[in-house]
Amino acid sequence: MSAEATSPGAPIRRRGRPRIDLRRLGRVALLGPVSRDRLPDAIGHVAEAHRAHYPDADLSILRRAYVLAESSHRGQMRKSGEPYITHPLAVTLILAQLGAETTTLTASLLHDTVEDTDVTLDQVRDQFGREVCYLVDGVTKLEKVDYGAAAEPETFRKMLVATGDDVRVMSIKLADRLHNMRTLGVMRPEKQARIAKVTRDVLIPLAERLGVQALKTELEDLVFAILHPEEYERTRALIDAAAARSEGSGAARQDPLAAIAESVTTVLREAGIPAEVLIRPRHFVSVHRVGVKRGELRGTDFGRLLVLVGEDADCYAVLGELHTCFTPVISEFKDFIAAPKFNLYQSLHTAVVGEDGAVAEVLIRTHRMHKVAEAGVIALGNPYAADGNTGPQPAEPADGERADPTRPGWLSRLLEWQQSAPDPDTFWTTLRADLAQDREITVFRTDGGTLGLPAGASCVDAAYTQYGDEAHNCIGARVNGRLATLGTVLSDGDTVQLLLAEDAASGPSPDWLDHARTPAARIAITGWLDAHPEGTHGPHVGRPAGTGPGRPGHARPGPQPQPQQSTGSGPVTAASAVVDRPDAPVRLAGCCTPVPPDAVTGFVVRGGAVTVHRLECPAVTRMRSVGRTPVGVSWTDATECRVTLVAESFGRPRLLADLTEAIATADAAIISATVEPPSEQRVRHTYTLQLPDAAGLPALMRAMREVPGVYDVSRAKHRAATV
Question: How far apart are CA 262 and CA 252, in angstroms?
Answer without folding.
Answer: 9
